[in-house]
Specification:
The complex is a heterodimer of chains A (109) and B (385). By secondary structure, chain A is mostly helical. Helices cover 39% and strands 0% of the residues of chain A. Chain A starts with a helix and ends in a 48-residue tail after the last helix. In chain B, strand 1 and strand 2 form a beta hairpin. Chain B starts with a helix and ends with a helix. The chains are: A mainly alpha (109), B alpha+beta (385). At the A-B interface, helix 1, helix 2 and helix 3 of A face helix 1, helix 2, strand 1, strand 6 and helix 5 of B.
């Protein structure tokens, strides 16, 4: 009886700790932009477009601003110079700065 | 309740009889969950950080491409873009990269035009003279200067340029500013020997967020050599980037999960003669198959729930307390300046629920199915082996 009581207590304490950690984190995520405002102010002031996570190459430093056809980042199986490059996916098909117009939409400036 | 406690006591005694085996299994189980949980917690925290902060980025960034490569953009493109209805301010940005041979690291140099209000994440002030600069915490750590000291860089003609540090971004912003050196725009043009009338790219303010894609289309149409990048595309890139990173890491660690499941399967299917005899005795004493299955299920649940809770707590400690030191090298690559940052504690409960399902349910099945096979056999046969 004593052993089962101790076991249950430990299990419940662990579960309670985990649930409270996860719940607090979940609440933090649900809360509006309050906790992020200082970082958002910084992003807006400096017009930052990327995270400063991997600075080994320009296309890993500024993932969103990289050339569409930079070497070694065309497809996942390509040989890659930099380790983090293999952790960055190819751009989704059709996702690019190119835009097509229907003929009915075209107008001269 | 007393009966339940007694049954639980029985299951615990049964586990205790094979304690070495069960403890070893639980440790491996918890480590597998901790590894997979760490990947999920880390990538979700980074993704949330990117999406929450970069949603304040410029609505559109316009680059110029030539021969498929990013080229400097004429500043007069801004006038064309500013003429579109719904467009606010169009600002030329001057920025670029600088490789420092002394610390062997890449820095991002950014030019800042006009007056900027003081930011909470900046200790000190923005540069107000051509020979002043603001640096990220990573740059300060690598070069060693403090506010008031000099930062020495070599310009495009390899001449020594000295900048007085007027501010350092606080470490809370490391994920955004770690390798940044912010100079006045004119000073940076001079440093890069960038011709007047050109900029690295343009940022476009759009009043109505629903018009962003339409304006991007107009820019691409009227300025065919331009490449507009909308904020939505920017966020989409980070969303898919971290999904991919998470997927790549999980693909590596899923082999650990498979190895564990094989171990569990082997242990469970190769039910020992002692366990078979125990099941036979219980049946001979009058236990029904359902009672035996209940007892085995309780044992499996005790192991898997304990391992799941311990594994997730370990993952939490690894990612949010220690800063994921075992996974960071994958993100770091060859970067010399790598930010030390505190991850925001956010979780995706759905992901963790899926993790629970893919680890707990197979283990329960591995344990209960062979017990059911033994329990449904004749007790005499089972006891005789």
């Amino acid at each position: 009886m004593k052993r089962s009581f101790i076991c249950l207590t430990v299990l419940l304490a662990g579960a309670l700790l985990l649930v409270s950690l996860l719940f607090s984190a979940h609440l933090h995520e649900q809360s509006p932009l309050a906790g992020w405002q200082d970082k958002r102010d910084l992003v807006a002031a400096l017009a930052i477009t990327d995270l400063s996570l991997s600075s080994e190459a320009r296309y890993t430093r500024h993932v969103t601003q990289a050339d569409l056809f930079s070497a070694f980042q065309d497809f996942p199986a390509a040989f890659e110079h930099f380790p983090t490059g293999s952790m960055i996916p190819p751009r989704p098909a059709g996702y690019s700065g190119r835009v097509s117009f229907e003929s009915s939409q075209q107008a001269q400036p | 309740m007393i009966l339940n406690f007694k049954l639980l006591e029985y299951s615990l005694s049964s586990l205790w009889r094979r304690k070495e085996k069960n403890v070893a299994l639980m440790v491996v189980y918890a480590l597998v969950i901790a590894t997979l949980g760490s990947v999920l917690l880390l990538t979700h925290a980074l993704k949330t950080e990117a999406l929450m902060t970069l949603s304040a980025a410029p609505e559109i960034v316009v680059q110029r491409t030539q021969g498929g490569r990013h080229e400097l953009i004429p500043v007069n493109y801004a006038e064309t873009i500013a003429g579109f209805p719904g467009v606010g301010k169009v600002t030329p940005r001057v920025w670029g990269y600088y490789y420092d041979s002394l610390i062997k690291a890449n820095l991002t140099l950014m030019g800042l035009g006009g007056y900027h209000e003081q930011l909470e994440l900046l200790e000190g002030r923005f540069p107000q003279a051509p020979d002043e600069c603001v640096i990220g915490a990573g740059v300060a750590e690598a070069f060693g200067p403090q506010i008031g000291n000099l930062l020495v860089l070599e310009d495009s003609s390899k001449r020594r340029s000295e900048f007085r540090v007027t501010g350092i971004f606080r470490s809370r912003s490391n994920l955004l500013t770690n390798d940044l050196v912010v100079l006045q725009e004119a000073a940076l043009r001079d440093f890069f020997a960038m011709p007047n009338g050109f900029a690295t790219d343009l940022t476009v303010e759009v009043y109505n967020s629903r018009e962003i894609s339409t304006i991007a289309k107009k820019i691409a149409y009227f300025l065919p050599d331009s490449r507009p990048i909308t904020r939505e595309e920017l966020l989409h890139t980070y969303d898919s980037l971290f999904n991919w990173r998470s997927g790549m890491m999980l693909a590596v660690f899923v082999s650990a999960l498979m190895a564990f499941l094989i171990l569990a399967w082997d242990r469970a299917t190769g039910i020992s003669a002692e366990e078979k005899r125990e099941i036979g005795i219980l049946k001979a004493l009058g236990w029904e198959t359902s009672h035996i299955l209940g007892a085995k299920l309780r044992e499996a649940l005790l192991i898997s729930l304990s391992a799941f809770i311990a594994g997730l707590l370990l993952a939490w400690w690894h990612v949010f307390v220690l800063g994921a030191p075992l996974l960071m090298p994958l993100l770091k690559g060859w970067s010399v300046l790598f930010p030390t940052f505190e991850l925001t504690r956010v979780v995706d409960l759905y992901q963790l629920a899926v993790l629970g399902c893919v680890t707990i349910i197979p283990y329960l099945a591995c344990t209960v199915i062979p017990a059911w096979k033994a329990a449904s056999s004749d007790p005499d046969d089972v006891m005789r082996g």
